[in-house]
UniProtKB/TrEMBL annotation:
Protein name as annotated: Tocopherol O-methyltransferase
Native species: Podospora comata
Region: SAM motif II, residue numbers: 190-198
Region (SAM motif I): 112-121
Region feature (Disordered): 1-33
Family annotation (PANTHER family): GERANYL DIPHOSPHATE 2-C-METHYLTRANSFERASE, ZGC:194242
Length: 340
């Protein structure tokens, strides 16, 4: 099997109706594979997600930097570097959720829970920008280690749960299954002003449980800030099979929800909508054009191949994301909720 040169450029897709052949590159075709292996239990799915992030986090850092989430390119700034676009998304979430970016000097520091924090990019941004005390949780022990190292910049060993000073704020990182956060944060000081979750909830098998837990750990008046991936309403089976199933399988997702599904979960536990939901699919879809270009390296595909079918299905899912955005079957939305 001969590898394509690292300078191979991906075929561009810009709209609806492109064939799967047009969405491939010579490199991706070498590793064409059926969909990811089916998971028989939700615990098995969680274990595969943890393994994926333990193995792949260094690659994410090298490809995308410290922020492992979409960028946001408003129509007025279509050519922003991806790093600025990623910060734009964070600022959009703050705006959508009506969170002041300049807290009053006399106010106590905001306490923020960043759920599915990855390697801590958003946690660090919020600590610096809002002078906040941020707790990041992730299911991946590797991500916890990386987040601590990136936050401190030294080889100092911080135990789980110990805060790391960061400008006017501070951060800490804990390895934790997010579905257990309601039973983990039970003390009198374990209430938060903000629960932040960006592109993580789609991984959770019990999404309704997350909304209940978020409500329980929020202070009265606290905000739930949310960005995620969704399937469109009313898809045909053909549309689902072509666009959504490859994303679910390749990205290790349980069944995806619609935007309205999340809103209903929130309302059922007593949260009130304060912003959105806002569909920003067109403003974020460039993320996957960039991603598809970045992964055209034989070394990355070889690493994915060494991880079995899950690894290759993950990279192949990138083109499904592009196709889903082009067809409108796959969506990205932001929203904010408040606890009365």
């Amino acid at each position: 099997m001969s590898a394509a040169p690292e300078t191979q450029k991906p075929t561009n897709i810009t709209g609806e109706g492109k064939s799967s052949e047009q969405e491939t590159t010579p490199l991706s075709k070498q590793y064409d594979t059926p969909l990811g292996l089916a998971h028989t239990t939700m615990q098995e799915l969680k274990d595969r997600i943890k393994l994926h992030y333990d193995l792949a986090s260094d690659y994410y850092l090298n490809l995308w930097g410290e922020h492992i989430h979409h960028g946001y390119w408003p129509p007025s700034s279509p050519d922003l570097p991806k790093e600025e676009a990623q910060i734009n998304l964070i600022r959009l979430l703050l705006e959508t959720s009506q969170i002041p970016t300049s807290p009053a000097p006399t106010s106590p520091p905001l306490k923020i829970l960043d759920v599915g924090c990855g390697i801590g990019g958003t946690s660090r941004f919020l600590a610096r920008e809002l002078a906040a005390h941020v707790t990041g949780i992730t299911i991946s022990s590797k991500q916890v280690q990386s987040a601590k190292k990136l936050s401190d910049g030294s080889s100092k060993q911080y135990p789980d749960g110990e805060y790391i000073p960061l400008g006017p704020g501070k951060v800490r990182f804990i390895e934790l299954d997010a579905e257990t956060l309601g039973s983990y944060f039970t003390g009198p000081d374990d209430k938060f002003d903000i629960v932040w979750i960006s592109e993580a909830l789609s991984h959770f098998p019990k999404k309704d449980l997350f909304f209940k837990n978020a409500f329980d750990v929020l202070k009265p008046g606290g905000k739930l800030v949310l960005a995620d991936w969704f399937k469109d309403e009313g898809l045909t089976q053909e549309q689902f099979d072509a666009d959504i199933k490859p994303i679910e399988d390749g990205m290790l997702l349980p069944p995806m929800c619609t935007v309205n599904g999340y809103v209903q979960f929130a309302k059922e536990v007593g949260l009130e909508v304060v912003g959105g939901p806002k569909d920003i699919s067109q403003e974020v879809k460039k993320t996957w054009d960039i991603s598809w270009s970045l992964i055209q390296k034989p070394s990355l595909w070889a690493f994915a191949f060494s991880q079995g079918r899950d690894g290759i299905a993950f990279l192949q899912a990138f083109r499904a994301m592009r196709r889903g955005y082009a067809n409108g079957s796959f969506q990205y939305a932001v929203m904010g909720f408040a606890k009365p």
